[in-house]
Amino acid sequence: xxxxxxxxxxxxxxxxxxxxxxQVSGVSHPVWVVSxxxxxxxxxxxxxxxxxxxDGVKYYAxxxxxxxxxxxxxxxxxxxxxxxxLSPQDTAVYYCAVTTQFPVPPNIWSGSGSCLxxxxxxxxxxxxxxxxxx
Length: 134
Fold this sequence. Notes:
Layout: E1 3-7, E2 10-12, E3 18-25, E4 33-39, E5 46-52, E6 58-60, E7 69-73, E8 78-83, E9 92-99, H1 106-111, E10 123-124, E11 128-132
C-alpha cells in the first residue's frame, strides 16, 4: 500500500523558515512524483511544488517560485519542502501526495501541470499544519 506521511509543521515567526518532509512508503515503481499542496481555510487546495524521483525535474507555483525549494532524498524515499521568508498568508495545512501511475510519460505528465492539480495526483498524506504568527 502506497503511503505518504508529512512531518515538520508547527509555529513559525514571520520572515522565518521551515522545512517539511514527506516520507513515502509502499512504492514499487521506479518512477514516482511527489507533489506539495496547501489549503487555507475557506480556500481551494493549491499546488505548490513537485519533484520526480526519476529525473529530479521540479515545478513550482508562481506564488512560491524563488522562495521555496523542493528536494528529493532517493535513498530515504523522502521529499523535503524548504520554505523561507514565511508570512502569515502562508498559514495553511500542507499536504504531500505521491503519484505512481501516469496516463502519459511522467515527464510529460508533470510538465503539463498535472503534478500541481489536486484532482490529478495519487495518494495523499494526512497533512501538517504550518502557522506563521508572531
